[in-house]
Specification:
InterPro entries: DUF4136
Domain DUF4136: 53-191
Distance between the termini: 42 Å
Number of strands: 7
Strand content: 25-35%
Signal peptide: 1-24
Order of helices and strands: HEEHEEHEEHE
Protein name: DUF4136 domain-containing protein
Largest sheet: 7 strands, mixed
Radius of gyration: 21 Å
Keywords: Signal
CATH class: Alpha Beta
């Protein structure tokens, strides 16, 4: 006899505590390119923490290393100091059950990150949440990079990448998320100034 979907869903929740599905958003990228980007993608570059960032933290170093790799692929040579250009890096990670309330994006057109959710339980008279345990945590990440010339008065290029993933996804760990976000941030470098794109 064929079981109804309601029976199967309830049985799964009661027997094993059906895990909530993992979620990973596209990486949303906004970039700004100066009117004189002649030296982008060449020469030497020093990667430094933006003011207010903790350059000594393991979290920062994971993202900074991912950015260094992307810059090398673009044609830069990474140096510890006195580069022709400086890449200023900031990283923000927010972990919580609810969507983070963001301040307006200051690079390009901007935009908000998407929300996530499951349709399970809609119209079904059982509380799946109490059977399957708490939902996975939501991890919102944002990295910002500004490339400056030696004079460090104006930015030759700016880029911001944001991503949301749940704690049960393949991108729960910073190392995986950093590589994905850095790759998206520099895809098609330098990109169209002021344009916001989504990279799957």
């Amino acid at each position: 006899m064929m079981k109804s979907p309601l029976f199967l869903l309830a049985a799964c929740a009661l027997a094993t505590g059906c895990a909530a599905p993992a979620y990973v958003s596209p990486v949303q990228v906004t970039r700004f390119v100066s009117e004189t980007p002649a030296f982008l993608g060449q020469g030497t570059v020093e990667v430094v923490a933006a003011p207010g960032s903790d350059a000594a933290s393991l979290e920062y170093e994971i993202y900074a290393n991912a950015i260094r790799l992307e810059l090398e692929e673009l044609g830069y040579r990474i140096v510890p100091d006195d580069g022709n250009q400086t890449a200023m890096v900031s990283v923000e990670v927010f972990v919580g059950a609810e969507e983070r309330r963001r301040s307006p994006v200051t690079v390009g057109a901007g935009g908000s990150t998407g929300t996530y959710g499951s349709g399970l339980g809609a119209g079904i008279g059982i509380n799946l949440g109490s059977l399957s345990g708490p939902p996975p945590e939501r991890i919102e990440r944002e990295i910002f990079v500004a490339l400056q010339g030696n004079e460090m008065t104006t930015n030759l290029w700016e880029g911001r990448a944001t991503m949301v993933a749940t704690s049960n996804s393949d991108f729960a760990e910073d190392a995986a998320a950093a590589a994905r976000m850095a790759d998206a941030l520099f895809a098609g470098f330098p990109g169209n100034s002021g344009e916001t794109i989504e990279v799957e």
